[in-house]
Amino acid sequence: MKDALPLIWRRSKERYRLLGNRCQSCNQAYYPSRKICSKCRRASKLVPEEMPKKGKVISFTQVFSAPEGFENEAPYFLALIELDNGVIILSQIVDSPSERIVIGAPVKMVFRRVFEDGSQGAIAYGFKFKVE
Amino acid sequence: MFNGVGITGYGTYVPRMRIKIEEIARVWGKDGASLSKSLNIKEKTVAAYDEDSCTLAVEAARVACRNVDASKIGAVFVGSESPPYAVKPSSTVVAEALGSTPNMTAADLEFACKAGTAGIQSALAMVACGMIESGLAIGSDTAQGRPNDVLEFSSGSGAGAILVGKEKVIALVEATYSFSTDTPDFWRRSHAEFPKHAGRFTGKPAYFKHVAGAANRLFQELGTKAEDYDYAVFHQPNGQFPLKVGEQLGFEKEKVLPGMVTPLIGNTYSGATMIALCAVLDVAKPGQRILAVSYGSGAGSDAFSLSVTDEIENARQPVPVFEQIKDKEYVDYALYVKHRRKLKSL
Ligand SMILES: [Zn+2]
């Protein structure tokens, strides 16, 4: 991925800490954070909030043919995870025996390398999940 | 020495994958059983492809700081000899992941295997003089050994984090003393991939001289002796050295064993003394005393005299070190080579 640095930099806080936001008008939480609340529109009052670091698998798939830059990690699991506050995110599942990766499996956030800009470039860190 | 300053939190992280010493020996045509026995190491941890000393440090730091307001952490020190970048600190990544930035200081420290305890000393002094409210010291490594070198049979991956402060102290630091000399027992030149070592000279004039030197200096300054301590923690380059130096200093084996993690995870370099101390904090009772002595090649040792308080019962890490170690998955040498990126083409 060329010119990955601006993206790595801009997204580090939300990736490190699951930093999203919540609308104070309707109480809806968002990850990634939004500039306006889709329910309240002009009445939205969004403040930063860390998402819970635990949740459960609601759907998953195993990736055998990985995109460029991730070939050495294949095969790996990608899952839709419902966090404890109801927000749904997409994440890689690591460190978990495949028989335990099932719908409903409780998962917790771990901190990993998520992307490397080649061997000389910046390293992007962030969240992945593992089955508890 | 520190007027009520001490350890206020701790946490460890041990990667899930393991390789048995016998499996490494199989590849190099060595007698695994006797190697394993002479090193007193059964197996070692293998960090995953997407892990490095920085991610390990973040995991340990999160456990250590789980109950504190991260914005009160005024300093983060990460000690490692396997940093992911040659230039660019891991400590700022840890601080950002905790949420401690930006009104704080951070630095990466390097002193072979004792950079973690050097961080504890810095944090203690900064808290004691009122510069910061609390400081975090981490020792973290994904230790590398050249294929077929004796280090490959012992070098593991892991991290330990110690939070230092004045409030709700779980172990008071009575004193810390160091012992340092210029000793070329182990090194890695810039741009070199693997460390080199002075073989048989890494024992007596290096490890034993400095560990005993720091411990004896601490005994002398404090007027204490081995009998005054309930636990003794020493750096663990293998499973033999800490037992031997403990015996030389007059400690019964039973006082050294509770911190002996290297037989099960290998030498985690900067993480070793930190994880071993955390394993003791998992079980130590109020009123007990701990002696902890690190060792870093090059060479030096930091000795700490700790006194456990009643607060320990409220601050033990959720999963003790020896429980964390039980969660494991064995890999063979080929997978180990892939995950640790030992293939040149990776
Ligand atoms: Zn809203």
Task: Tell me the strand order in the biggest sheet of chain A.
Answer: 6-5-4-7-8
Number of strands of chain A: 8
The structure class of chain B reads alpha/beta
Main sheet: strands, sense, barrel of chain B: 9 strands, mixed
By DSSP, the count of extended strands of chain B is 14
User: From the helix content, strand content and strand pairing of chain A, which structural class follows?
Assistant: mainly beta
CATH class of the largest domain in chain B: Alpha Beta
Q: Which features characterize this protein?
A:
heterodimer; A: 132 residues; three-stranded antiparallel β-sheet; 1 helix; 10% helix; B: 346 residues; alpha/beta; Peroxisomal Thiolase, Chain A, domain 1; nine-stranded mixed β-sheet; three-stranded mixed β-sheet; 13 helices; 14 strands; binds zinc ion
Description of the molecule:
The complex is a heterodimer of chains A (132) and B (346). Chain A is mostly beta strands. Chain A has a domain at 53-131: OB fold (Dihydrolipoamide Acetyltransferase, E2P) (Beta Barrel), CATH 2.40.50. Chain A contains one helix and eight strands. Chain A has one helix at residues 5-17, and strands spanning 19-23, 29-30, 46-50, 54-63, 76-83, 88-93, 106-116, 123-131. Chain A has a five-stranded antiparallel β-sheet. In chain A, strands 2-1-3 form a three-stranded antiparallel β-sheet. The longest helix of chain A is centred in the N-terminal third of the chain and has 13 residues, at 5-17. Chain A is globular. Chain B is α/β, with parallel strands linked by helices and 346 residues long. Chain B has 13 helices and 14 strands. Chain B has helices at residues 21-27, 32-39, 53-64, 91-98, 115-128, 203-222, 241-248, 253-256, 262-265, 270-281, 312-315, 321-326, 333-339; strands at residues 6-13, 17-20, 43-46, 73-79, 105-109, 134-142, 157-165, 171-180, 186-187, 196-197, 231-234, 289-293, 300-308, 329-330. The longest helix of chain B is centred in the middle third of the chain and has 20 residues, at 203-222. Chain B is globular, with a radius of gyration of 19 Å. The A-B interface holds A 12-13, 16-17, 50, 72-73, 94-95, 97, 110-114, 123, 125, 128 and B 16, 48-52, 54-55, 58-59, 62, 84-85, 93, 96-97, 99, 329, 338, 346. The complex binds zinc ion. Zinc ion is lined by residues 23, 25-26, 28, 37, 39-40, 44 of chain A.
